[in-house]
């Protein structure tokens, strides 16, 4: 057995399994909304050090993402993806929500909405893009598990976790 591998561990929220505990811990931030990696320049926070490092390229001016077709460089991989549509002729699509655009500049403007977080948790101050995500996050603070399996009685803090759990009874 590999020394850094452990027995598969399951996320209690959604049932997804991980062989490495560190990967499970990182994954669980999706459910809790935790963002431990904060940019010292602008205060934006991120779930992973990779995302923080990629973001910091904006402030440093570093452009490590280079187009293989024309050689133009970008600070963000998402900007390179949008740029490539010039060469492929395909309309640019937002990888976060799947929304398509006729021109790449419209996509770049649209991507700003994914960075705004107007709904804030009164307990910890964390911001969320949608109120429903904030409500799910607040279950973590209250330890409330309002979604109960009618077959076995196990409770979950998120409805999606209950749905996945119920598939096991089938």
Automatic annotation (TrEMBL):
Domain C2H2-type: 9-36, 37-64, 65-92, 119-146, 147-170
Keyword Repeat attached: yes
PROSITE patterns: ZINC_FINGER_C2H2_1 (PS00028), ZINC_FINGER_C2H2_2 (PS50157)
GO molecular function annotations of the record: DNA-binding transcription factor activity, RNA polymerase II-specific; RNA polymerase II cis-regulatory region sequence-specific DNA binding; zinc ion binding
Main location: nucleus
Subcellular location: Nucleus
Cellular component terms (Gene Ontology): nucleus
Family matches, as SUPFAM superfamilies: beta-beta-alpha zinc fingers (SSF57667)
Domain of life per record: Eukaryota
Pfam families: zf-C2H2 (PF00096)
Keywords: DNA-binding, Isopeptide bond, Metal-binding, Nucleus, Repeat, Transcription, Transcription regulation, Ubl conjugation, Zinc, Zinc-finger
InterPro entries, alphabetized: Znf_C2H2_sf, Znf_C2H2_type
Family, as annotated: Belongs to the krueppel C2H2-type zinc-finger protein family.
Protein's name in the database: C2H2-type domain-containing protein
Organism: Hirundo rustica rustica
